[in-house]
């Protein structure tokens, strides 16, 4: 089993606010940039083949400094992303395809807490024949739909509802043609890759995600991640 890895890190992270350290994937948590934690997890996983990191053209130096915090050298290629996450993923997939791979995992740089057990579950599902694998957790909160003024309109039954995470994992050929078709059809509104697979008619299989595998979005997510790592050797 050898799997190409696409780490998307080309976003500007505007919802996390401005920082001298740059976009949120380069902010320091637990003494290292967020993306260094993420890269280290993949660089030390047995299933990892080539890693493609998709960055914004302005961030080459930030990535260079972050890589000094990744102890295990990886087979790593850097490409430039696009204006949306979807375009950044496509750039990464093309780079994986150019080198050749059967499987690919697509992961947000800003999810530094995915662990090897999660990657192993994804691998098992791919080896079991799934074309598309989505780590997700069952929704625990009661869900409400509200109108634009914040008045609740209804309670949404939460049974069978899941919150999607990454890494989302695919047969490379299947997800690459789905992404190319979405791009060619000017469909630019997909916020994750499983939804592109769904749109293309590829069945998506859920594996158990991780409660801790949060996406660092706001300033408080970054502060909480830093707190959590204090004193830990992760
Ligand atoms: O903005 P959001 O938190 O949804 O971004 C998820 C991931 O996608 C982040 O790691 C971000 O860097 C990446 N991204 C990207 N290219 C974009 C927008 C987001 O690689 N144009």
TrEMBL record:
Enzyme Commission numbers on file: 2.7.7.60, 4.6.1.12
Swiss-Prot/TrEMBL site (Transition state stabilizer) positions: 15, 24
Pathway it works in: Isoprenoid biosynthesis; isopentenyl diphosphate biosynthesis via DXP pathway; isopentenyl diphosphate from 1-deoxy-D-xylulose 5-phosphate: step 2/6; Isoprenoid biosynthesis; isopentenyl diphosphate biosynthesis via DXP pathway; isopentenyl diphosphate from 1-deoxy-D-xylulose 5-phosphate: step 4/6
Site entry: Positions MEP for the nucleophilic attack: 158, 215
Molecular-function GO term, any one: 2-C-methyl-D-erythritol 4-phosphate cytidylyltransferase activity
Keyword terms of this UniProt record: Isoprene biosynthesis, Lyase, Metal-binding, Multifunctional enzyme, Nucleotidyltransferase, Transferase
Essential cofactor(s): a divalent metal cation
Record's catalysed reaction(s): 4-CDP-2-C-methyl-D-erythritol 2-phosphate = 2-C-methyl-D-erythritol 2,4-cyclic diphosphate + CMP; 2-C-methyl-D-erythritol 4-phosphate + CTP + H(+) = 4-CDP-2-C-methyl-D-erythritol + diphosphate
Region (2-C-methyl-D-erythritol 4-phosphate cytidylyltransferase): 1-234
Family, as annotated: Belongs to the IspF family.
Summary of the function given for this chain in its UniProt record: Bifunctional enzyme that catalyzes the formation of 4-diphosphocytidyl-2-C-methyl-D-erythritol from CTP and 2-C-methyl-D-erythritol 4-phosphate (MEP) (IspD), and catalyzes the conversion of 4-diphosphocytidyl-2-C-methyl-D-erythritol 2-phosphate (CDP-ME2P) to 2-C-methyl-D-erythritol 2,4-cyclodiphosphate (ME-CPP) with a corresponding release of cytidine 5-monophosphate (CMP) (IspF).
Protein name: Bifunctional enzyme IspD/IspF
Gene from which the chain derives: ispDF
Residues of the full protein shown: 7 to 240 of 404
